[in-house]
Amino acid sequence: MLSPLELLIPFIILVLISLPLVNVFRGKTSVKSAKVRMVSHICLFFALVLGTVFFSATKAYAAETADVADKMAGSIGQGLGFIAAALSTGLSALGAGIAVAAAAPAAIGAFSENKENFGKSMIFVALGEGVAIYGLLISIFIIFMKL
């Protein structure tokens, strides 16, 4: 059973990460400042994820049970497999979003100039979306290999 402090800490971390972005969402900061803040918050997020993994790994080492080695080997390996699956899905979806964000306006512009460019331009948009599907497939393979 989780203690109230263990339930409250993730909420506090989430509030601390999102609190500086309030002015960005209100439109009171410049675009350059917003980009710097977003990059710093993404770096902070990944640092917190790594810190959480490190904290949970050290907490697992401190457990006092009869067969600690057998339980830790399976749980840490399985947990890292789930993290790898989440990263492959998330980063491929992020890459696909960037690709579609660049290809879709260009496809619309090409289509508006010449109606025959529709098929050619949609291929590039579909290729960008295919990246997310490949990442999802890789994460499914990772999860089924760990089970």
From TrEMBL:
Signal peptide: none annotated. Residues 83-142 form the V-ATPase proteolipid subunit C-like domain. GO terms for molecular function: proton transmembrane transporter activity. Pfam families: ATP-synt_C. It is found in: Membrane. Its main location: membrane. It is a multi-pass membrane protein. One of its GO terms (cellular component) is proton-transporting two-sector ATPase complex, proton-transporting domain. The chain crosses the membrane at residues 7-26, 38-62, 82-111, 123-145. Keywords: Membrane, Transmembrane, Transmembrane helix. InterPro entries: ATP_synth_F0_csu, ATPase_proteolipid_c-like_dom, F/V-ATP_Csub_sf. One of its GO terms (biological process) is proton motive force-driven ATP synthesis. Belongs to the ATPase C chain family. This is ATP synthase F(0) sector subunit c. It comes from [Eubacterium] hominis.
